C-alpha cells in the first residue's frame, strides 16, 4: 500500500505523521519527497547506502548551425528562449525539457544534453525506526523543478510492502508528482483558520487526482477549530482518521530528533483505518 502524507502548507506535521506511521509499521519504506528540504534522514539517520545522480535533458545550441531564425523561441511556451539580434539566449531555469525547440529548429542547431539536478539516496534507518528503508532526494541549489527528481525517486520503489511518501508542502507540481500513484492520501492539518484554509486547497487537488483521502488533525486541542475542521470534513465526506494531541513534551522530543513512542497506538489505529478506507478505491 502506498500512503502519501500531504498538506496545504508547511509546518503542519507531515513528517511527524510519516515517521509515526513508519515506527508503527516495521519494514515499511519512507520516501522523503521534500527534495528542497528533506529532513526524515535527521530522525532515521540511515547508514551509508546507495546514491545516484539524476539528470534531465536540456537544449544545447550549436552556434555554427544556428542562423538566428527565432523559430525555437516562437514555439517555447515557457519563454525559455529569446532572440536578440541573430543570437539565441537560453534561460535554462525556465526550460521544462519538452523538446519543442529541437523539433522546430529548421537547421537542426538545437540538440539535447544531460544536466544534473540532484541525487537520490537510499539507506536503512539506524534510529527511531531501525530497519526502515529511507529513500530521499536532494535537489541541487538553483534547480528550478523538483518533479523530475521526485519521479526518479519513485521509480526506485519495489512494487511490494508498505510505502509512506512524505510530500512537499503546498499544492504545486512537486506535491502532485509526490502524491501521484498513491493508494491513499493522508491530509495533515492543524486546528487553525490557516490550517483549515490550506486543507481545503490540498483536498481539492487530491479530489482532482481521484485519490481517496482522510485527515489527521495534528496538535489537536479539542477547541473550536477542532470542531470547525471536523464539520468541514463531514461536509466534504472526508473521514478523520486520527488526531495527534497538542503536546509540548512531544515537541521537545521532536526538536531533539526523537519520535515519541507515546502515540504509537494512535499510529497503529490510523494504519487500521487506512486498510479499510483504502479498500474503497
TrEMBL record:
The keyword Iron applies. The lineage of its organism: Bacteria, Bacillati, Bacillota, Negativicutes, Acetonemataceae. It holds the Pfam family Fer4. This is ATP-binding protein. It comes from the Bacteria. Residues 57-86, 87-115 form the 4Fe-4S ferredoxin-type domain. It comes from Anaeroselena agilis. InterPro entries: 4Fe4S_Fe-S-bd (IPR017896), 4Fe4S_Fe_S_CS (IPR017900), CobQ/CobB/MinD/ParA_Nub-bd_dom (IPR002586), P-loop_NTPase (IPR027417). Keywords: ATP-binding, Iron, Iron-sulfur, Metal-binding, Nucleotide-binding. One of its GO terms (molecular function) is ATP binding.
